């Protein structure tokens, strides 16, 4: 691709999450050829660029200055310049303010091009040994205990594998909350993935808590937890017919029906509420 073809576009360039060798040839080429690089922390990004002998103007773009910098970057793009967006580690737009820049540029009909690469989310999932055909990625967990507990409660019946980012300071409290809410499910704590002091703790949640007891946990943490073992797929036609029978019988309240069907079929209450309302509407 010629430098001319880069103009007027935003490139989301994935960068290493630890090991500087984990960057693609395409990412290096784009970083060398764009006019401007927007970075979450310019000091951090400059180390990467210096390592690969890349010398391009850097502009800081983070959650505290994003509105101001969006306008500046937008004007630069409209002048025909090319822009690369990088985060401190991994893929821009995933649990960072880059998503807002992407949204704004798309509103202005500016092409946004992904340059894929490292992701702590995918790296942790790939080594977890847990089901990966479907998963829920929450991003960074709420810092307050009460908010984290509420969020866990909202996910306890989901069958998908759950993935979170957490700070090392809150990890132990987080695992205790997870154990209380989810029960003793399988889990994985991946710390400092791809870095010198990479560690992976696997096992039931209670076992992981024992493994890290007394240890000072530092670095970037990705937490993976198995989905609900109780939740399972139920034939839609069978479920609809069963709900119709209960509705026609008229002996149970909505709450009683949900409780009974959830226990009988091992289906989440949230999904049952939704299905019952659908069946009611269809039969009005």
List the topology elements.
Elements: H1 3-6, E1 10-13, H2 25-33, E2 36-39, H3 42-51, E3 58-60, H4 66-78, E4 83-86, H5 98-107, E5 112-115, H6 120-128, E6 135-140, H7 145-155, E7 161-166, H8 171-182, E8 186-191, E9 199-204, H9 205-212, E10 221-225, H10 236-249, H11 254-265, H12 269-282
What are its keywords?
single chain, 284 residues, alpha/beta, Cobalt-precorrin-4 Transmethylase, domain 1, Methyltransferase, Cobalt-precorrin-4 Transmethylase, Domain 2, five-stranded parallel β-sheet, five-stranded mixed β-sheet, 12 helices, globular
Q: State which percent range the strand residues make up.
A: 15-25%
What class would the helix/strand composition place it in?
alpha/beta
Give the termini separation. Answer: 59 Å
**H/E topology pattern:** HEHEHEHEHEHEHEHEEHEHHH
The overall pLDDT, averaged over residues, is 92
What kind of sheet is the major sheet?
Answer: 5 strands, parallel
Number of helices: 12
The portion of residues assigned to helices is: 40-55%
- What top-tier CATH class of the largest domain fits best? Alpha Beta
The radius of gyration over CA amounts to 24 Å
CATH architecture of the largest domain: 3-Layer(aba) Sandwich
Give the number of domains. Answer: 3
**Low-confidence spans: pLDDT under 50, at least 5 residues?**
none
| Adjacency order of strands in the biggest sheet | 3-2-4-1-5
Shape: globular
Entry summary:
The protein is an alpha/beta fold and 284 residues long.
